[in-house]
Each structure stands twice: as C-alpha cells, then as structure tokens.
Amino acid sequence: MMLRRLFFSSLCTMVVMMSAWTTCAIASPMEFTAFGANTGAIQGTVDAFRTALGNPNNGNAAGTTGGRREINWDGGNVALTDTTPGVTPFNVFLNTRGGQFIAGAGGTGFVQAPQSVSGGGNGNGLAGLFNNASYGTGFAPFSPSRLFVPVGTNAFDALFFVPGTNGGTRATVSGFGIVFSDVDLANMTHIDFFDLQGNLLDSVNVPPGGAANQSFSFAGVLFTTEQIGRVHVVLGTNALAQGVSDGSGTDVVAMDDFLFSEPRAVSAPGVLTLLLTGAMVLGAATRLRRCGA
Predict the structure, then answer these.
(1) 10 — pLDDT class (breaks 50, 70, 90)
(2) H or E element in which residue 11 lies
(3) How many whole angstroms separate alpha carbon 99 and alpha carbon 190?
(4) Cys-Cys crosslink for 101: which of 13, 90, 228, 258, Cβ 3.0 to 4.6 Å?
C-alpha cells in the first residue's frame, strides 16, 4: 500500500512540475510601433528598438551572449531577384543569423527582390516575378533595394537557432520586429508571439502606413522576462499574385528589415525537470513490480 501511495505521489509531482513548465507566464511586453509615408517617419522608432534589443549588431558572427541580429535582404547583388519557390523552410540565414522562416499553408517558398528591375531580366523584381505591374510602384524598400515576401501565402512562421550551429541548437529571443511596406488596412497585418510551449505571449496589429503607396510601418515587441520561441506573421489579406492588387478590401503587403535579439540556446531546466520526474515515476513503478504490488 505504501508503494502504491509513493507511485501516485510521484505521478502527482510530475503533473504539478509539468504544469509549471507549460503554464504561460504573465507577459510583460514593450511594444514599438510607427508608420508614415517615408522612411524618416519610422526611423526613430526602428533605432529605438535596435537600442532596446542591444548592441552590437552581430552580423554573421557565431552565437554570442548579447547584442542583436538584423536581416535586410540586400546582401550580394541588390539588383537581382533571389527566388526560392518550392523551398520552405527558408534557411539562407539559419546558420549566419539564427533565423528560419517557414511559409504558411499553401506557401511554396520566399523571394528577396526589388520592386522591379528596369530593362527586365533577373525576374524583373516583384513586378515581373508575380506578373503584376502594380508591385513596381506600390512597395518601397526601407533599406535599398530588396524586399522579402512569401510565395503562395500571406503568412509564415519564424523560428530561432543559435547562430553558427546550422539549426542544431534551438534558441529563443526576447525581442523581434519587422519593417513593413504598404500596409493599407487596419487590423489585418499582425505579428503573434509564442513561447516554446505554444502559449501566446502577445499579438500586435501593424498600423497602416497612411499613404496610398510606398508607405512604411514598423512593429516590434521586446519582453522583459518571457522568451519568444516562435513568431507568426500575417501580411494583409492576400498573398502577392497576378491579378491581386490593393483596393476593394484587398491589401497586399511586403516586408523589409527584420530585427531580433541575439538568439539564446533553450535553457536546460525545463528539460531536466521532465527527465527527473520521468525517472521518479519509473523508479516507483519498478519498486511496485518487484514487490508484486
């Protein structure tokens, strides 16, 4: 009887400890948002977010203990269109910056491109790739000259890993933000922040840019205690595509700079808790079997 009580006591302990591990903490986010018709309208807020994330910008360095990471999609020949349709996750910055991007339902990949490329060739930018001339004038880059969009979907997820491990070490970040191009409708473009257990920490609606074309919006969140394990982003109402342009309740949105805090390796205490409680239950079960209980 005493062994039975020990067994059930161990089970209760495991349940309590696992509940503590999976329960969402009360989030304490600092939200940064801005919008306007030109880069200057959001520059101050973007810079403030950079400062809040921490210095320096670690570029392509291996994982460190502080600072931040940025992706502006402009490396290499900025006049070219780099397409990866049919490729998701997008792992171009997985090893160097610790960011992995996964297209949403129906998505086939991502593209880095300017709005258009004069003279054609090289995919002719977003306008040529999607065969939609309005994309050549509707969007504008925050950091010239390329933008970033998913293909075949208007949603994607971001995951984080320790830079330099090529996706081998899962990580979390304390802050994440994006510069958006040509947000027209309120409450359609948004960023959702989740912890490693899938608990929603915060959700931020990206403000409309306030101009018909080539406006800018920024949204970012920095947490003081929580850690972000996954980010979900929804862009406007529709994916970029031939025949899909702004107007009549339709809003297509592109992105530029991504900014996030230095990815930190997932802490071990939660894993150790699960291992220890599992060992406790296994030990109690073994004793019961030996005693024929």
Answers:
(1) very low
(2) helix 2-22
(3) 19
(4) 90
Q: Can the peptide bond before residue 56 be classed as cis, meaning omega within 30 degrees of 0?
A: yes
Tokens linked to 85: 């349709």
Domain that holds residue 246: 24-262
Angle made by CA atoms 228, 229, 232, in degrees to the nearest 5: 85
Buried residues in 114-149 as b, exposed as e (16+ CB within 10 A): bbbbeeeebbbbbbbbbebebbbebbbbbbebbbbb
Q: Over the stretch 57-94, which tens digit does the pLDDT of each residue have?
A: 999 999 999 999 999 999 877 778 887 777 999 999 99
- Token pair of 202 as six digits: 């915060």
- Which residues partner with 124 through β-bridges? none
Residue 112, strand partner residues: 82, 148
The total domain count for the chain is 1
pLDDT, tens only, 258-268: 999 999 999 76
Asked if 218 and 44 count as a contact pair (C-beta separation under 8 A), the reply is: no
Q: What are phi and psi of 245, to 5 degrees?
A: -135, 165
Cα distance between residue 257 and residue 262, in whole Å: 16
Residue 293 lies in a domain: no
Q: What is the CATH number of the domain that holds 161?
A: 2.60.120
User: Which of 94-98, 193-197, 250-254, 288-292 is predicted with the least confidence, judged by mean pLDDT?
Assistant: 288-292
Counting every residue written for the chain, the total comes to: 293
In a domain, 14, yes or no: no
